[in-house]
Automatic annotation (TrEMBL), chain A:
Gene: ATP5MF
Keyword Lipid biosynthesis: no
Protein name in UniProt: ATP synthase F(0) complex subunit f, mitochondrial
Organism expressing this protein natively: Strigops habroptila (Kakapo)
Principal location listed in the UniProt entry: mitochondrion
Protein's UniProt keywords contain Mitochondrion: yes
Gene Ontology CC annotation, any one: proton-transporting ATP synthase complex
TM regions (residue ranges): 57-77
Keywords: Acetylation, ATP synthesis, CF(0), Hydrogen ion transport, Ion transport, Membrane, Mitochondrion, Mitochondrion inner membrane, Phosphoprotein, Transmembrane, Transmembrane helix, Transport
Membrane topology: Single-pass membrane protein
Function noted in UniProt: Subunit f, of the mitochondrial membrane ATP synthase complex (F(1)F(0) ATP synthase or Complex V) that produces ATP from ADP in the presence of a proton gradient across the membrane which is generated by electron transport complexes of the respiratory chain. ATP synthase complex consist of a soluble F(1) head domain - the catalytic core - and a membrane F(1) domain - the membrane proton channel. These two domains are linked by a central stalk rotating inside the F(1) region and a stationary peripheral stalk.
InterPro entries: F1F0-ATPsyn_F_prd (IPR019344)
Gene Ontology molecular function terms on file: proton-transporting ATP synthase activity, rotational mechanism
GO terms, biological process: proton motive force-driven mitochondrial ATP synthesis
Quaternary structure, from the entry: Component of the ATP synthase complex composed at least of ATP5F1A/subunit alpha, ATP5F1B/subunit beta, ATP5MC1/subunit c (homooctomer), MT-ATP6/subunit a, MT-ATP8/subunit 8, ATP5ME/subunit e, ATP5MF/subunit f, ATP5MG/subunit g, ATP5MK/subunit k, ATP5MJ/subunit j, ATP5F1C/subunit gamma, ATP5F1D/subunit delta, ATP5F1E/subunit epsilon, ATP5PF/subunit F6, ATP5PB/subunit b, ATP5PD/subunit d, ATP5PO/subunit OSCP.
From TrEMBL, chain B:
Keyword DNA repair in record: no
Taxon lineage: Eukaryota, Metazoa, Chordata, Craniata, Vertebrata
Protein name as it appears in the record: ATP synthase subunit b
GO process terms (BP): proton motive force-driven mitochondrial ATP synthesis
Main subcellular location: mitochondrion
Family per similarity comment: Belongs to the eukaryotic ATPase B chain family.
Assembly and oligomerization: F-type ATPases have 2 components, CF(1) - the catalytic core - and CF(0) - the membrane proton channel. CF(1) and CF(0) have multiple subunits.
Keywords recorded for this protein, A-Z: CF(0), Hydrogen ion transport, Ion transport, Membrane, Mitochondrion, Mitochondrion inner membrane, Transport
Amino acid sequence: MAQPPVLLKDMKLLDVKLGQLPSWLAMRDFTPGGILGAIRRGYNRYYTKYIDVRKGGLGGISMVLAGYVVISYIWSYSHLKHERRRKYH
Amino acid sequence: MLSRLVLRAAPAALRSLQRPVTVGVLHATRPLHTSKQHLAPLPPLPEKGGEVRYGLIPEEYFQFLYPKTGVTGPYVLGTGLILYFLSKEIYVVNHETIAAICILSVIIYGIKKFGPEVAAFADKLNEEKIAKAQAVKTESIEGLEAAIEQEKKEQWRVEGRSYLFDAKRNNIAMLLETNYRERLLTVYNEVKKRLDYQVALQNLKRQKEQEHMIQWVEKSVVQSITPQQQKESISKCILDLKMLSKSAQATA
């Protein structure tokens, strides 16, 4: 446990305590360049972990397709609300 | 593009500063080598990707819940979530649900049946690609090793160069020696010829002097014999002859 104290903005999301979450979110880089960098980093992480391997499996693309299905369901929920069978749950 | 404009404007702006500061600052407008060093040679690709269970849920989810809830925890959570969505009709059951069920069952059946074959085919393609690259690499390595062998042989040949030069030096020395001896012989012959000439000259001179003296002595002797001495010597000779004949007669 001889680690130097890490700055709040450099900590990863999973290491941030719950009370520090708002300040952590405030310190993140929300410029367009920062957002682009974050998207690129996320894409690279997913790519190197699931796709850029010798024996890629099904999970690599199936997770992307499942995410697409979920997101399109969420976007069309306002239309699907009318097809509910019961009014009160 | 804007950065290029900035970079082009920077030297003109910096030229207004003094000389040594300009040089130092100009090099710092573009930071170099700020990222840490990249690995070289590249590390090989990992064999298998991240583990995914049932093709949809990454393994990290199960490992995350294992310490608190054991093995069945994630499944219970999943089931609870599904029931919650169904009961609250966050997920609406309509005609699309049946279509989704049919499509998914066909997809899963196809994957289960043809999965391994497709995987083997893709692996074969990858293997061929890797083998081609590897062949190029081994070929180039072999070529370089052959070049190294050649180089070593050339170095060994260079070592023998000293012997070659020794032999050539010996040849030259022998030529020089032969030439020197020839010239020495020529010198000797020439000197001998001159000395012989001198000797012959002296001999000739002495011989001529002798002849001349003998002739002169004879001439003077002949001249000194006066006629009177001639008559006396002739008569003496006749007397001697008579005496000799008498003695010869006496003995015979």
